[in-house]
Amino acid sequence: MIHSEDRLVRPLTSTVQVGQLQLRPGLNTFLLLFLAACAGGAQHGNTSPQLSAADQKFLLTYPNLEDSQGDVVLENEHVVVQRLVVPAGKWEGVHSHPGNQLYVHIKGGEWTGRLGDELEYSEEVSPDGEIGWMDAIPLTAEHDSGNTGDTPIDIIYVTLKSDEPIAPDGEHTAQHYPNIPMKLLLDNNRMIVQRVQVGPGQWEGVHSHPGNQVFIHVKGGEWSGRRGGKSTGSTVVREDGAVGWMDAIDLSEEHESGNTGDTTIDLIWITLK
């Protein structure tokens, strides 16, 4: 059974037996963090956990949807990560946004928006992997968006719990893979957002992690890990939309992961400031 420990993602919706795997806090790799994160409930389709009363304010509610709050796929002291699916032809219903939110399209589509009776935008297409920043919107604004395309839109919201940076005096660095370039999507006073595509057979190269990071798979795939150039002996397949939390990993641990499948893995890294 996988336990959370200090550097693992907190399981949210169920307890999952994964062989006899046991992790020691100083030795777990990026691959095993993926395994812990996603096996522990960070997958769409599971029942959302009960958040504390204080955390309910961070949840989006789309009143017109049958599953109005979707799934909470990750929650800790810093973030609430929520996944919602808007069916084709469906409007979300008038709702508010708490602000300090990043959205990531797992499956994009065609959006139309309105404020009250006025059209705000029409038939704008968001591709898979498109991200954006959302400030607070009060319920009185009568904000509503609809899927005016012909396929479901699958979207993940990362909502920050604090109005202030979690480490305002720290040196904030973007994630770096020596072997693969990463595209910078957003850099504001709250987070750095990057996107990387890892092709079949590619390895990231030995690297560190600054910690306080959320990862989101736009397109999943098969990961394998190695340490100091030697295989960890573990392989795991992650689905589209799989989400997790990453604490700091020092360069001296010589960790890296590689795509040992036959499809490209498309990954979003969110580094909190």
Report what the structure shows:
This protein is mainly β and 273 residues long. The chain folds into two domains: 53-160, Jelly Rolls (Sandwich); 170-272, Jelly Rolls (Sandwich). The protein has one helix spanning 30-39; strands at residues 71-75, 79-86, 101-107, 109-115, 118-126, 131-134, 143-147, 153-160, 183-187, 191-198, 213-219, 221-227, 230-238, 243-246, 255-259, 265-272. A hairpin with a 2-residue loop joins strand 12 (221-227) and strand 13.
Brief digest:
The chain has 273 residues and is mainly beta. It has one helix and 16 strands.
Distance N terminus to C terminus?
A: 32 Å
The helix-and-strand class reads mainly beta
- The helix/strand series, from N terminus to C terminus, equals HEEEEEEEEEEEEEEEE
Regions with little confidence, pLDDT below 50 for 5+ residues: 1-30, 35-47
Which tags fit this structure?
single chain; 273 residues; mainly beta; Jelly Rolls; 5-stranded antiparallel beta sheet; globular; disordered N terminus
Outline the fold blueprint.
Blueprint: H1 30-39, E1 71-75, E2 79-86, E3 101-107, E4 109-115, E5 118-126, E6 131-134, E7 143-147, E8 153-160, E9 183-187, E10 191-198, E11 213-219, E12 221-227, E13 230-238, E14 243-246, E15 255-259, E16 265-272
Antiparallel strand pairs: 1-2, 2-8, 3-6, 3-8, 4-5, 4-7, 9-10, 10-16, 11-14, 11-16, 12-13, 12-15
